[in-house]
Request: fold
Amino acid sequence: MPLTPPATAIRVENVCHRFGSNTVLNNLSLTVPQGTIIALLGPSGCGKSTLLKLLAGLLHPDAGQVFFGTQKVVDGRFSLPPEKRDLGMVFQDYALWPHMTVAQNVAFPLQMRGIARPLRQQRVLAALDRVGLADFEQRRPYELSGGQQQRVALARAIVAEPQILLFDEPLSNLDRDLRETLCTEMAVLLRQLGTTAVYVTHDQQEAEALAHAIARMKQGVIERIDYLQKPAVSPFVA
Reply:
């Protein structure tokens, strides 16, 4: 069963976030059109991971609003819980449960949504096939290489067919050759899926290989956006 997740636009309006006296995001605005992949690129401390966590619902901003399509998910008084945002996220440390099999790890988001077992099994097998792990469903994470574990994490992110995918430096723990291979595979997969995606990285080559556009961040603001490929729909507005 092919996975063809829907997609939705992301709109961030005048978002500010502070940690104590340190302003991490400074009145930042960004629009990501439906079905577009944008990379957030910049040095450590520039705010890119904080912005991603705000999109995921793991942090709440001090000011500003965030919309997924027409749905407001954040404003000054309200923050929609992460599990209700219809998104998938891939972390740099894989975040797999060691006591679960590969199939159980991938199925977990579907279990949380109450999907019936037969449909869960179909979607898990389809997701694993998408990432090249069709015969690995009964293995445990400790039996896999780092690249295979990251593929499992990617399968788990796409299995529930989310509208948005978020990536927090997912390849940073891998060696250069494996990073290049997985980067190419992920670029192909994301374009096949057509899902809106935000990809945090400090590696310019990675950003250029994956994204339609790169938002270059510095000291809590987006300095400029470089367009690499034609976006899925209308141009960005920052």
In short: Confidence is low (pLDDT under 50) at residues 231-238. Residues 1-82+196-238 form a domain with the Rossmann fold fold (CATH 3.40.50.300). The first helix runs from residue 48 to 56. The CA atoms of residues 115 and 140 lie 23 Å apart.
